[in-house]
Amino acid sequence: MNVDANLRSINNIATTQQVSANNIANTQTNDFQASRVVQTTDKVTISAEARIAAQNSAGETMSTTDVAQDVVQMSANESFLSANVKVIQTQDQMDQALFSIKK
Question: 23, 36, 56, 80 - which has most CB atoms within 10 Å?
Answer without folding.
Answer: 23
